[in-house]
Specification:
Number of strands: 26
CATH class of the largest domain: Alpha Beta
Distance between the termini: 12 Å
Largest sheet: 8 strands, antiparallel
Structural class: alpha/beta
Number of helices: 22
Mean pLDDT: 93
Number of domains: 3
Bound molecules: fructose -6-phosphate
Strand order of the largest sheet: 3-2-4-1-10-9-11-14
Strand content: 15-25%
CATH superfamily of the largest domain: Aminohydrolase, N-terminal nucleophile (Ntn) domain
Helix content: 25-40%
Shape: globular
CATH topology of the largest domain: Glutamine Phosphoribosylpyrophosphate, subunit 1, domain 1
Amino acid sequence: MCGIVGYVGPGHAPEVIICGLRRLEYRGYDSAGVALLPDGAQRLLVVKTAGKIAALEKELALRASACAGRCHLGIGHTRWATHGAPTAANAHPHLSANGRIAIVHNGIIENYAALRQRLEDRGAVFRSETDSEVIAHLVDACYEGDLRRAVAAAVEQLEGAFGIAAVSPRHPGLIVAARRGSPVAVGVGDGETIVASDVCAVVSHTTRVVFLDDGDIVAARAGAVDITSARNLPISRELTHVDWDVGRIAKGGFEHFMLKEIHDQPRALADVTRGRLLPADGATRLSGMRMDAREMARVSRLIIAACGTSYYAGMIGKYLFEDFAGLPADVQQAAEFRYRNPIIERDTAMLAVSQSGETADTLAAVREALRKGAVVLGICNVVGSTIAREAGRGVYLHAGPEIGVASTKAFSCQVAVLAMMAVAFGRTRRLSAEAGRHMVNALADLPRIAAAVLERADLIRAVAEKYARARDFFYIGRGYMYPAALEGALKLKEISYIHAEGYHAAELKHGPIALLDSEVPVVAAVPDTPDKVKTLGNMQECRARKSPIIAIATQGDAGAREVSDDVIEIPPCPEFLSAIPVVIAEQLFAYHVARARGCPIDQPRNLAKSVTVE
Ligand code: F6R
């Protein structure tokens, strides 16, 4: 949600920080700011603006005389408003009253009202409505000449989630950062150090990254980091090599990141399966799971926890585990999990599905499951993310950075990983080598199938433009196509702002069919599967209410064409993987509807890429 970038080193800090903040733009934000320490200055220069990074750059240019000279230290922030409107005053960095401390903060401070009252009683004057500003005053109140110790003492008093970076004009070569519940990564380059909430802001400078754990406090100096616990005990953290090159974070000639990422899918599906398929044995090798056959055979129940698109991928996972591994699987909305009293029996395993690996609700579900003694496996895209690290084992998606707010390639790779896991678990139970071989061969064919859907992009665009002015949509499907229908509706509503509902095809007549008329198109996910005939019947029912029908069907399917106004064809694909081509078609459809309506596709209103608050 919010983004942090801090720089200390020989480069020009304002430039490095602005460039880093731009890399975080995709996360969604409403205001931005920097605190810089020009060489030799006694005071921090703080510049904050509402709106886009361009507004901040403009304001910085107006203050050119103040920061045109050399400047080797600074912190910056993009804010996504929680406490207080998106104004310049509420934007970060926040300063202590005497200007001695500047902080940027991601997360929510739950006890901020009590802290603010206490600090105000002692004379602190607040300038914003945010929860974050208390941190600046608190660090200042704890400051006795050592910035690291002051931050450590302050965070001891904070309740809630945070990633923090702090600077002071008294320490011209130092950034102190701390983490509890909100990610902080530290890139250690040649004589320079970047502190950020997201590795995307780091990789253009260095691929050598240290990920902080909860409770860590880092003193970052040019080219060096020193990590300690709140009690000042030294901690050593592994240096991770992050091989995301900058080119992969750029749009690569596409109009939007989302379109680029949709077109990335043949490559992503090749990467996610690479080295993991064993056709001769009809098996898969997922070494990150760190479970041998005996351990896998002992698992008696799976809980799949996730949010949003990842939840819909999890629903497909449930079907896969039941169909191919005979393994009971529940898919649960992560936000519900920790507030219920979930039953975790011996031999229950949790799969935590999260592109970002930072979603607050999924992370809380992981912690609850670990607390209750479950084996937890992360299915994450972002290497070194909190869920991946806390789960300690799992399977990475290798989809590459997903920048567009709407999740696309992560979904396809999540389904592919879940299918590979179903093979792995299945082969320790009732899945035969022959059946496993059939699945593995189908998985190997996914890049070709995805590419074949993308070849039809122009046709999908034409259909999308035809319906772009509709005000409501229904998406329907059965079996594996039910989650695909839910995902199609989610994609459309989040980027086009059109009201769209996903329903099981059979459920329509239990209520929502009352809403259908000639103004409400129905998108039917109806590839050639055993359920198809029944869905065709449901499409007839919609047609009888005059709804225009758009079918996503297997190429050459005359039955689907007969009951539809428009058909988006996908190549033949085994049922267990058919959600992947169907959802790719839905992604393109949603993209072109949103484009035709002139929507800001990569950063839809009110949404953030990584939802790190409850
Ligand atoms: C929809 C979308 C969200 C995310 C959800 C979970 O396009 O992106 O629904 O899927 O916020 O995010 P992760 O997968 O990062 O846990």
